[in-house]
Design brief:
Layout (H helix, E strand, L loop, with lengths): L2 H13 L6 E3 L2 E6 L17 E7 L5 E4 L1 H5 L39 H11 L44 H16 L12 H7 L5 H23 L8 E6 L6 E3 L10 E12 L5 E12 L2 E6 L5
Antiparallel strand pairs: 1-2, 2-3, 3-4, 5-7, 6-7, 7-8, 8-9
Helix pairs in contact: 4-6
Length: 303
């Protein structure tokens, strides 16, 4: 009957080898039991085993847990929420400060810029077109004045244009150069003026009709004449612009869908010599008068 007591004493003795506190993860567990080995021949008496659990808090204080408290499961900590004690305070972002934009007042225009702006306001050609030929090198009498000091169109006169004015003498050479270079804008000072056409034409939108009909036809005809000169067109030269002023007709208001009177001249021609030395002609279908000067309206045909 004593052998079972010895085996029980051996199991208790193995358990009692750990007689000092063990600390892990801030939890202290202590085990105490019987002595390591009973003396030989002595009766081994079982010693009760006592389990002690203590918790070390954040302030470094030890708190012993009761059996009921130790049996409760530990609360789970959310992984997304950092520990209040260990988490560092979040850095406060400094408010964004938008850079200050220094607004500068525009500098006053120079005298040259002011004169250029006034010239653009009084231009007789719509936006997108240039006069092509600079009249600064010509005398003031060459380019007729169309507008008064207030920008109003000067009234029409019944003077029949001739062929001896400085302005008329520039029409033929300029037209021939425009054909050779295929550059219709060279003819703009000698073509139907836009301010005149606005007052003259009885239509809903005269500037649009001028741009997309009259000037478009001029471009087409100049390009057609340009091709007719051939590849050696640079060797051709201008001779004369032949007109007969006595053939002109005075057109009263209401004729040809116009509101103002003017002289109309059909059947003129541009005479030149080609690269082979032969004299040729280009048709100039229609000229019209304004204040005693001739202006080109149609080159090749009336449409």
């Amino acid at each position: 009957m004593r052998r079972p007591e010895k085996s029980q004493a051996r199991r208790l003795s193995k358990l009692a080898r750990v007689a000092y506190p063990i600390t892990a993860c801030a939890i202290t567990v202590g085990l105490s039991g019987c002595r390591a080995e009973p003396p030989p021949g002595a009766k081994a008496e079982p010693t009760p085993v006592r389990l002690e659990v203590s918790v070390l808090n954040n302030q470094g204080q030890t708190h012993a847990l009761s059996a009921a408290e130790a049996a409760k499961p530990l609360p789970r900590k959310d992984a997304k929420q950092p520990d209040e004690a260990s988490a560092a305070p979040a850095k406060q972002r400094a408010p964004k400060v938008s850079p200050k934009v220094v607004q500068r007042e525009p500098s006053p225009p120079t005298s040259e810029q002011a004169e250029e702006g006034q010239a653009q306001k009084g231009a007789v050609v719509p936006a997108g077109f240039s006069l092509g030929q600079d009249s600064s090198g010509q005398s003031e009498s060459v380019v007729p004045q169309l507008l008064d000091a207030r920008g109003e169109l000067l009234p029409q006169t019944k003077d029949l244009p001739g062929t001896d004015s400085a302005f008329f003498k520039q029409i033929g050479p300029t037209l021939f150069k425009a054909i050779v270079d295929n550059n219709p804008e060279l003819m703009l000072p000698y073509f139907m003026p836009v301010p005149v056409y606005e007052k003259l034409k009885d239509s809903k939108n005269p500037p649009r009709d001028w741009k997309y009909r009259l000037f478009a036809q001029l471009k087409r005809d100049i390009e057609r004449y340009h091709r007719a000169l051939g590849s050696k067109r640079e060797r051709a030269h201008f001779v004369a612009l032949d007109v007969v002023p006595e053939d002109a007709l005075w057109m009263k208001p209401g004729r040809e869908y116009n509101k103002l009177p003017y002289y109309r001249l059909f059947g003129s021609s541009l005479r030149y010599v080609d690269y082979r030395g032969r004299e040729r002609r280009f048709e100039v279908s229609a000229l019209f008068s304004w204040r005693g000067e001739w202006y080109v309206v149609h080159l090749n045909g009336l449409k």
